[in-house]
Design brief:
By secondary structure, the chain is α+β, with helices and mostly antiparallel strands. It folds into three domains: 100 residues, no CATH class; 155 residues, ATP-grasp fold, B domain (D-amino Acid Aminotransferase, Chain A, domain 1); 76 residues, Dna Ligase, domain 1 (2-Layer Sandwich), CATH 3.30.1490. Helix content is 27%, strand content 34%. The chain has eight helices and 19 strands. The strands form three sheets. A seven-stranded mixed sheet has the order 1-5-4-3-2-6-7. A hairpin with a 5-residue loop joins strand 18 and strand 19. It binds adenosine-5'-diphosphate (ADP) and magnesium ion. Magnesium ion binds next to loops. The site of magnesium ion has 3 residues, from loops.
């Protein structure tokens, strides 16, 4: 999309709230047009566009459904779109525009930290036991359960997710799929392999959960939980990711289905879906209490073969594209809701 020449935020626009999207790029985002009737200027900017001295920011703004280059005063509220575990910039912005005006202050969560939060909350029964990777834990899980799952503490998109299985003459190491496993024939080789792997990055280890399958496809259930224009948590959308038969990570999407469709023919019904929604909202409340100011998360669930419900992961910067097959109405709402929440914050 071509950007028009630079625009100043005019006095008329000044009567509108400026909602900042702190981002890592200045690419136009095509999905905010449904906010056109709101009294907001949506303003996308990068850290490098901030002039801290003069309190102005260079970026792009949505003007009559077109993104144009612009320079503006500091926003009234900021929706952080940089995937980061650091709050240096968000806190600095907040120190200028006001406490509580920036949300998703950090959004790259550590899986071990999330586990510790859930473990000490009313959601403890849904939390998959998660430890910082240690050889003795690996060996214990292999001895008692025959399998273990290892993944980066701050990973995403299923990258670096390993399933280790104890087999007759050694161990199988599978990365994301069951295709071409690495086979090692001694405990020492396995330990050495894992130590090398975990040297450069923090990994966590969990028991491998055998999730229920439909037609031999594993699936998970994702709830998108967002704060609305009155600051209340809601589940805006839900989706089920059905993964390839050869894969054990639901990030390898074979098809996307509504949760209702994915659960059709199983014993899980609407009541179960409402229950999962309640758990997701609770998770959002708990995380916000323990982590930072949050405006949206996604909560991924899996159902164990023993019917037990597990929270697989909580994501602080959910990928909205996952919901692209939802109705236009839902898809627009997914983009609009954080802007409505930002407007609510701007008006506080
Ligand atoms: N303990 C586990 N047992 C079985 N499968 C798991 C387990 N943890 C994760 N998975 C599978 O791996 C995928 C990726 O793991 P996840 O924790 O979501 O990390 P990422 O941040 O890479 O998405 C999950 O969607 C799920 O399908
Ligand atoms: Mg995940």
């Amino acid at each position: 999309m071509m950007l028009q020449q630079q625009k100043e935020v005019t006095p008329v626009m000044n009567r509108k709230a400026i909602i900042g999207l702190l981002s890592t790029n200045l690419e136009p985002v095509p999905f905010y047009n449904s906010c056109r009737y709101m009294p907001v200027v949506i303003y996308k900017f990068k850290k490098s566009g901030i002039d801290w001295e003069n309190k102005t920011i260079k970026g792009i703004m949505l003007d009559n459904d077109k993104w144009v280059k612009a320079e503006a005063r500091f926003p009234d509220a900021v929706y952080n779109r940089c995937y980061s575990d650091s709050s240096v910039i968000t806190k600095r912005l907040e120190s200028i525009i006001g406490s509580g005006k920036v949300f998703n202050v950090v959004n790259l969560f550590d899986k071990h930290v999330i586990y510790n939060i859930l473990k000490n909350s009313c959601l403890k029964n849904f939390a998959i036991p998660t430890y910082k990777y240690r050889t003795d834990i690996l060996l214990e899980l292999l001895r008692t359960q025959g399998t273990a799952l290892i993944k980066p503490a701050k990973g995403s998109m299923g990258s670096g997710v390993f399933k280790i299985t104890s087999v007759e003459n050694g161990y199988n190491i599978c990365l994301r799929t069951f295709l071409s496993p690495k086979i090692v024939n001694s405990k020492d080789v396995l330990i050495d392999y894992m130590e090398k792997l975990t040297r450069c990055r923090d990994y966590v280890i969990q028991p491998f959960i055998d999730f229920v399958k439909v037609n031999n496809h594993m699936f998970d259930i994702r709830m998108l939980v967002q704060k609305n224009g009155t600051g209340q948590w809601n589940v805006t959308a839900d989706i089920s990711r059905v993964c390839y038969k050869s894969s054990f990570v639901s990030n390898f999407v074979y098809s996307l289905k509504s949760v209702r469709d994915a659960l059709e023919g199983t014993k899980y019904n609407e009541t179960f879906i409402s229950y999962i929604k309640k758990v997701s909202i609770k998770a959002a409340e708990i995380l916000e209490e323990r982590l930072c100011h949050i405006g949206e998360i996604s909560v991924d669930f899996g159902i164990g073969n023993d019917d037990k419900l597990w929270i697989i992961e909580i994501n602080g910067k959910p990928d909205k594209e996952t919901f692209r097959d939802c109705s236009t109405e839902v898809f627009e709402k997914i983009y609009r809701t954080p802007i409505e929440y930002a407007l609510y914050l701007a008006q506080l």
